[in-house]
Design goal:
flat, 13 helices
């Protein structure tokens, strides 16, 4: 284990010892507390761990600093049970390197992957924003249009991962979809994905099931080799959660829930949320079909349907808005002429009634502001009409 001294910034080997015991810096003598496996102050490869963000099923995520480039990154450190399986760790190393070759605006960029002292770590782009798990906790559910745009972003990420590297994410869920400060949705943890048809998957030589029970595809549970249609299913389950505010299948135990995914008796989301557009209901039901052959076969097919829906919603919104159009020159001239006529008639009536006289002294004080206003109005109206007339009659 390597530590960085908080006083002199010296990086030194702390050796093995009991967690919580002090470890003196060999350069300045400042004592540091030995962490339990990983924690702030630990250096893994080129990355200095600064603080913990969150922990999940596969490991813990930290904010770290890449020392060579002096940039902030997110560093995922896998649990000990994964790192202690050499075959599993080697497989993940291989696929993480494949994911690092991807560069797409809807994918959290992978930077580096490695092992040190039996600890497997994966460095990726640090997103300043929220996960959709956090957003759902706050908003409860998303409206159909917003949810469609998020799912469209993720579908584009899957299209890039599948088309370029044949990668299957295997754990699509709101927690792995980030909403960044620019409003983009980004798919995270793609570096921990599996390549379709990998040797270990084909052999079925693992008891470890990748995925989250609320969103997992039937083939992940039954041991059938997975492809991108498995990710489409999990994205459909996430879509279901977005628009209804609840999981597609709800059961008292995890075992019952996963069995419901295998059985495939899905309650259509429109029965849970009757305001849901029929087209979104159709898309979700197709994404979550029990048989992969009945789903969208590629992300591109899903993208086309989502784009058509979003385009239609945008068109409907435009039709419902009353657009104020600028007046034509002809209409402006007519309005100005009418206003001038009204003012002339009003002034004549006041003159006839004796309110306005033929000189300043004979005009009552209360009428003088009106006279000044009329004079200024006539001047501006005459200038405007003259200008419009020149514009209209110009060759």
């Amino acid at each position: 284990m390597r530590l960085r001294c908080r006083k002199c910034s010296n990086i030194f080997d702390a050796g093995n010892g009991t967690p919580g015991t002090p470890v003196p810096c060999p350069q300045c003598g400042t004592a540091a507390e030995r962490p339990d496996r990983v924690g702030p102050g630990v250096v893994l490869g080129d990355f200095l761990i600064e603080k913990s963000i969150t922990s999940g099923g596969m490991g813990e995520i930290f904010v770290a600093r890449q020392l060579s480039l002096d940039r902030e990154v997110a560093l995922k450190v896998l649990q000990k049970k994964y790192s202690s399986d050499p075959e599993f760790a080697e497989s993940l190393l291989h696929e993480a390197r494949a994911a690092a070759k991807l560069n797409h605006p809807n994918i959290v960029q992978a930077y580096a992957v490695g092992q040190e002292d039996g600890i497997f770590y994966f460095a990726m782009e640090y997103i300043r924003g929220e996960t959709y798990k956090q957003i759902l906790r706050r908003k409860k559910r998303l409206d159909a249009l917003e949810a469609s745009q998020v799912v469209l972003d993720v579908a584009r990420a899957l299209d890039a991962a599948w088309g370029q590297q044949k990668l299957v994410h295997q754990d699509i869920k709101p927690e792995n979809i980030m909403h960044d400060a620019s409003g983009f949705s980004k798919l995270a943890d793609l570096g921990l994905a599996r390549r379709a048809g990998s040797e270990k998957e084909e052999d079925g030589d693992t008891d470890e099931v990748m995925g989250t029970p609320q969103y997992i595809s039937p083939e992940q549970l039954t041991g059938v080799p997975t492809d991108v249609r498995s990710d489409i299913y999990s994205l459909g389950a996430t879509f279901y959660h977005f628009v209804t505010g609840r999981f597609p299948y709800v059961a008292p135990t995890t075992e019952e829930m996963v069995q419901m995914h295998v059985d495939g008796h899905l309650q259509p989301p429109i029965e849970v949320c009757n305001r849901l557009p029929a087209e979104i209901n159709r898309i979700i039901v197709k994404m979550m079909a029990r048989d992969p052959a009945d789903r969208y076969q590629t992300p591109a097919e899903l993208i086309a349907d989502l784009e058509n829906f979003i385009r239609g919603e945008a068109g409907e919104s435009t039709r419902n808005v009353k657009v104020r159009r600028p007046w034509s020159r002809k209409k402006k001239c007519a309005v100005a002429a009418g206003a001038v006529s009204v003012c002339i008639l009003l002034a004549a009536a006041l003159f006839a009634a004796g309110v306005i006289g033929d000189g300043r002294e004979s005009t009552p004080d209360f009428a003088r502001p009106f006279c000044r206003y009329c004079a200024e109005f006539f001047r501006r109206a005459a200038a405007a009409v003259s200008g419009w007339k020149r514009t209209i009659t110009a060759p």
